[in-house]
Structure formats: structure tokens, C-alpha cells
Amino acid sequence: MFEDTYKTITSQSEGLYKDKGSKFIALAIPVTSEEEIRQHLSELKKQYYDARHHCYAWALGPNRDAFRANDDGEPSGTAGKPIYGQILSHDLTNILIVVIRYFGGIKLGVRGLINAYKAAAQDAIANNCIEKKIIREVYQLSFEYPLMNEVMKVLKDHDLEQLSHDFAMSCKILFAVRKSHADHIKSVFEGIYGVTIKYEHTV
């Protein structure tokens, strides 16, 4: 059976690392879109406007299909990469980790920076709760009124979550199904003459 779950964090948490006067404040934030990430980054830059660097890494999607790491002026590979490394080593997604650095006047060197950004990110994750979520596929059903009872019976029998419905001219229902059950459910609906099922997206 293929894996149809992923791990993410439940809430925002903070981590801290200090070295030679430099202070590294890490924030781990659950996110679901790039728009959300942009908002958080912009707010944190305003909140910590006097910090020298706002380095970050993020991953989105059950398989981390979208991800980014940013050094924000630190030497290449010393900040974003070690932060992203912590996301990978904890097998997380739908997460943004921002590490804000207040410079203490003494340079830490490449090794010192990598260690600092890694430790701060690690601390933020350690202060959070990790939860396992089920990957679900969202489908849209289209059918005419006479098929309503038959369609509703399948939804009920298989305990499928209805996300929305539109019973205006003809009937449309949006529902979610666990990824590992999706092919079976699809074939059940395809077996009902007059029902059209269309894949929408994965959540």
C-alpha cells in the first residue's frame, strides 16, 4: 500500500539560538499557499525591521512539490539550506520557517552560520506539535435530479466528506476521498449511468 499521509506542524512556534552575541530567532509557521507565505514574510519583516537578516525556507504540498530556501544576504548556502534541511529531516511539509538574525558584531564563519541556522530551526520544530494528515483527492460529481438518491447513498456508505453542493439547474457535488481509496470510489461513480466525475485537486 502506498503512503497517503504527510506530516506538518499544528501551530506557530518559536526557537532561539545564540552565539558570540548574535541572536537567531526562529519561527515555524503552518502554511498552505505561497500567498500565505508572502504575507507572513512581509509581516515578520515589519515586526523585526531592525534585524540584519530574515532567512527562510518553506515546503508546500504532500510531496513537497513546491519549496524554496533563501539566504537573505548571508553567504550562499549558510542559512536557507540548513533551515530547509531541518524541514526534510523531520519529514515536514506545508511549513514556513523564518530565522531572524540580530548580528552581535563577531563573524561566525561559514560553519558557525550553518550550525546557528540549523539549531534555531530545529528548536522551533522541537517546540511545536507534529501531526500526520491524510492526503485526500477532491472530485466533482455532475448528475441530474433522478440520480440524487443513488449518489447520496454512495457518499453515505463510503463515509465521503461533502465539501459543497449546487442543486440549481442540475446537480453538482464536491467531495473529498482518501487518496488510497480514490480509484475505487471513482469506479463506483463511473458505474452509475448519467454521473460524471471529475478530479479537481489534491489536499
Task: Give keywords.
single chain; 203 residues; alpha+beta; Ribosomal Protein S5, domain 2; Alpha-Beta Plaits; 2 domains; five-stranded antiparallel sheet; four-stranded antiparallel sheet; elongated
Protein model, in words:
The protein is of the alpha+beta class. Helices cover 32% and strands 37% of the residues. Strands 2-3-6-4-5 form a five-stranded antiparallel β-sheet, sandwiched between helices. It has a four-stranded antiparallel β-sheet with strand order 9-10-8-11. Strand 9 (161-166) and strand 10 form a beta hairpin. The relative contact order is 0.19.
Topology of this structure?
Layout: E1 5-9, E2 13-19, E3 22-30, H1 34-47, E4 53-60, E5 66-70, H2 80-89, E6 95-102, H3 109-126, E7 130-134, E8 136-143, H4 148-157, E9 161-166, E10 171-178, H5 179-190, E11 196-202
Antiparallel strand pairs: 1-7, 2-3, 3-6, 4-5, 4-6, 8-10, 8-11, 9-10
Q: At CATH's second level, what is the architecture of the largest domain? A: 2-Layer Sandwich
Question: What is the CATH superfamily label of the largest domain?
Answer: Impact, N-terminal domain
Cα radius of gyration in angstroms: 23 Å
Total beta-strand segments: 11
Q: Give, in order, the helices and strands.
A: EEEHEEHEHEEHEEHE
Strands across the major sheet, in which order? 2-3-6-4-5
When the domains are counted, the total is 2
Proportion of strand residues? 35-45%
